[in-house]
Amino acid sequence: MEARASAKYLRGSAQKARLVIDMIRGKNVNQALAILRYSNKRAALGIEKCVKSAIANANEAAEKANIAVDPDELWLKAAYVDRGPTKNRRRMRPAPQGRAYRERRHFCHVTILVSSDLPSDEAPTNGKSKAGTPAVSKRAKRGGAVAAPRAKRVGSKSEAAEGSETKSGATKEAKSEKKASKAGSRLSKVLRRKKDEK
Q: Which of the four pLDDT bands, split at 50, 70 and 90, describes residue 195?
């Protein structure tokens, strides 16, 4: 059983609200409400109301479908924040020497999806082992640049280490030869000056 709730036009930027949403995503409803209750962020109050609304929507949908759902077993399946309008919401703030700084009043839209189904981590695997599938990080699950596939290197690490050692050895020898030639040329210049002075 799934239910969703959205809170629109919340004060504050979406970037700041995402800091709060990231703390509660994937958690049990009671844990999420406890985190929001004691959070110092301004966005936490509006997000807490949205979570409570999603719980109420889940109870209502369960009653309509004649299904028994325990509110304590709900968990946040998805939670995300979209950017709200900032156009025509610019204000001017007085600044030194008669100037004015432009302020943008940011708004954001919060959407929360709660579910009573088991999370994918706790769901039964039907006898299949998870050893074959690689572990995926939380950032990769969310998507973005982190989830993008990376290009694989042609050579192995050991070959790269050997190559770097030979290169560093060659460059050290070349540098020492350069220093010696510079020192030799300086010495010859000093000797020539002394001869000229005599």
A: confident
| pLDDT classification of 157: cutoffs 50, 70, 90 | low
User: Helix H segments across the chain?
Assistant: 14-24, 29-37, 43-64, 138-142, 157-197
Stretch (H or E) spanning 108: strand 107-115
Burial (CB < 10 A; 0-12, 13-18, 19+), residue 53, is middle
Q: What is the pLDDT of residue 129?
A: 45
Q: Which of the following CATH numbers is that of domain 2-120: 3.40.640.10, 3.30.70.1060, 3.90.470.10, 1.10.10.10?
A: 3.90.470.10
Encoded tokens for 62: 């369960």
β pairing state of 107-115 and 2-11: antiparallel
Structure tokens at 81: 């924040």
For the whole model, what pTM was predicted?
A: 0.59
Residue 26: count of CB within 10 angstroms of its CB: 17
Quote the CA–CA distance of 173 and 28 in Å, as a whole number: 63
What pLDDT is recorded for position 35?
94
Q: Read off the amino acid at residue 184.
A: G
- The amino acid present at 27, given as its one-letter code, is K
